[in-house]
Design brief:
binds zinc ion, alpha+beta, three-stranded antiparallel β-sheet, single chain, 172 residues, five-stranded mixed β-sheet
């Protein structure tokens, strides 16, 4: 008896995508439109990548993304890097070339070079990251200290770097 091949059966494929079935024994469906491949992930981590702003995703929780991965976004000549769609990033032109990386520790890559940008306070304000609020007097000291001790590694444990699932994109 020959069993029908359900691996190409569209409703099941859609269901598996919805389920995010990734564990051993589940179907591993790789969609290059939605998932970064190994080479892309390693490039983003090690060298960073330059892309026009409109290629990035604006996730509904206000973080930035590429496919199903969150990002750090920055300009080579600036002093700060961005984790969210703060007013500074919103002021950039949609075709502005920006650097993006997924690097969680140390300096940010600029291809073969690197830069020691600081985290953007406006991004932390927008995200209310760990209660960050420079607009409330009683929180100013706390918030300034949060900037000094800020860790991207910790940030990307709270805002999972990869994979980002089930997070609608803002439509702009
Ligand atoms: Zn920012």
């Amino acid at each position: 008896m020959k069993l029908p091949d359900f691996t190409e059966f569209e409703p099941f494929k859609a269901l598996r995508l919805t389920m995010g079935a990734r564990k051993a024994g589940h179907f591993e469906l790789f969609n290059p439109e939605r998932h970064l491949n190994g080479r892309e992930r390693s490039e983003l981590d090690l060298q960073g990548k330059q892309l026009p702003l409109h290629r990035l995703k604006q996730f509904a929780d206000t973080t930035w993304g590429l496919k199903n991965t969150r990002l750090v976004v920055y300009l080579a000549e600036a002093n700060h890097y961005h984790l969210a769609q703060c007013p500074i990033t919103q002021s950039w032109a949609y075709n502005q070339n920006v650097w993006v990386t997924t690097r969680r520790t140390g300096h940010l890559p600029l291809g073969d070079k690197s830069t020691s940008h600081q985290v953007c306070a406006e991004c932390l304000q927008l995200l209310s990251y760990k209660g960050f609020d420079l607009q409330k007097n009683r929180k100013i000291t706390y918030s300034k200290n949060l900037i000094k001790t800020f860790s991207r590694e910790e940030f990307f444990r709270i805002y999972t770097l990869y994979p980002v699932q089930g997070l609608a994109e803002k439509f702009t």
